[in-house]
Amino acid sequence: MGKVTVMTSGKGGTGKSTVTAGLGAALVRRGNRVLIIDCDAGMRGIDLMLGISGELVFDIADIINGNCPPMSAIYPCRTVPELYVLPAPQNVRDEISPSVMRQLTKVLTGYYDHILIDCPAGIGAGFETAAAPASQAVLVANAEPLSLRGCDKVRRRLQSCSVDNIRLIINKFNERKFRKMGVFEDLDAVIDEVGARLLGVVPEDNAAAAAAQKGQPIEGKLKAAYALDRIAARLDDREVPLFME
Ligand SMILES: Nc1ncnc2c1ncn2[C@@H]1O[C@H](COP(=O)(O)OP(=O)(O)O)[C@@H](O)[C@H]1O
Ligand SMILES: [Mg+2]
Fold this sequence. Notes:
Layout: E1 3-8, H1 16-29, E2 34-38, H2 46-49, H3 60-64, E3 75-76, E4 83-86, H4 98-108, E5 114-118, H5 127-131, E6 136-141, H6 145-160, E7 165-173, H7 175-181, H8 187-194, E8 197-203, H9 206-213, H10 223-235
Parallel strand pairs: 1-5, 1-6, 2-4, 2-5, 6-7, 7-8
Antiparallel strand pairs: 3-4
Helix pairs in contact: 1-10
The structure holds adenosine-5'-diphosphate (ADP) and magnesium ion.
């Protein structure tokens, strides 16, 4: 049975979808078969980041409404074999209930080693649906007070949805800017603020961000790819030292 991880963030723009797409590819590099379920109804982006937006016919709402069998709405990423995407509905009205999402994901776990669910930012509409099937959660935050503020609320809501294994990814990290901002003494202070164990730090990497925006995988010599490979190993329960990113 595959591991189901919900990818969350306090506010939008922390890089949750970019990290989800990149982490999916990194898990594939480790030999996993991976499905990303885009649950950000009305704001989907994973299809674009994996270069398949032009191919989409069906989405998750079509499965629920009986318009197609599940496998017809699951698209292979052309550039990363064994990475698959189940797109979110384009329309927010097509929101799915938590119990239906749980049932659908349960069926799908038989076919994949990892399922990553890209959740809408914050704890508004769609949060509980995205969190319902997950056994673990990742909070994607930036090392800035505004990004961290919402994390606390998300962490508490995840716990109330019985998702207790919650880990933190600090994304877009730039040491020079972090020191210049002078709000936190070090990364430990950031981790304390969120109250979740650190899963990894992804550096600010404009080349990786640009690749994702063009539908290309984050791989090879990109700095972010290196960090994502280490995070993927930790998600596969491997011991990888944290502070050598
Ligand atoms: N590690 C990174 N380094 C630099 N820019 C990044 C990084 N991760 C994401 N971005 C950029 O941040 C912006 C928001 O990313 P996105 O993944 O859409 O965020 P979210 O899904 O949290 O709203 C995009 O412009 C994206 O290219
Ligand atoms: Mg997003």
